[in-house]
Each structure stands twice: as structure tokens, then as C-alpha cells.
Design brief:
This protein is an all-beta fold. 0% of the residues lie in helices and 53% in strands.
Length: 77
């Protein structure tokens, strides 16, 4: 299992336990991911660290002074 943190601007868009689809966006030298439909965005990943599965399950939602963060677990070996 692999967990990835996504930044979410508003609360209530997803809930713990939801199965979500992620969309991969290719940059010039890295990849980033968006929880569809534009719920939250990941940081940048090198090609060797790309997410292998397009679906994941939300394991946690955290709030701090910078906003909301969604932790998604992906089934990867």
C-alpha cells in the first residue's frame, strides 16, 4: 500500500472511506495528480515515483493553518 497527500481548498468535498479516481498530469520534468473532479491536487513526483493505480481510498482528512489535506491510499506493490 502507498499513501499520497493531496491539498484540498475546501472541506466537505470528499469523506474518509470514499473511493476516488486520480488524473495524472504530465509536466516538463515531473508528474502531478488531481482527485477527479478537481477536488484536490498532489505535489510533484519524479517519473520513477509515479502513482501506478488510478483509484484510491481516502484514509484521512486533516486541517491545519494552510488548509485541508487528504490522505489517499493506493494499492501498489
Amino acid at each position: 500500500m502507498r499513501t499520497v497527500e493531496f491539498k484540498m481548498e475546501r472541506q466537505g468535498l470528499v469523506n474518509v472511506g470514499d473511493r476516488v479516481k486520480v488524473i495524472e498530469r504530465e509536466g516538463t520534468s515531473s508528474y502531478s495528480y488531481i482527485i477527479d473532479p478537481a477536488v484536490a491536487m498532489s505535489g510533484c513526483f519524479a517519473a520513477r515515483d509515479r502513482i501506478k493505480n488510478e483509484y484510491g481510498v481516502i484514509k484521512d482528512i486533516r486541517e491545519n493553518s494552510r488548509g485541508f489535506y487528504v490522505v489517499v491510499e493506493f494499492d501498489e506493490d
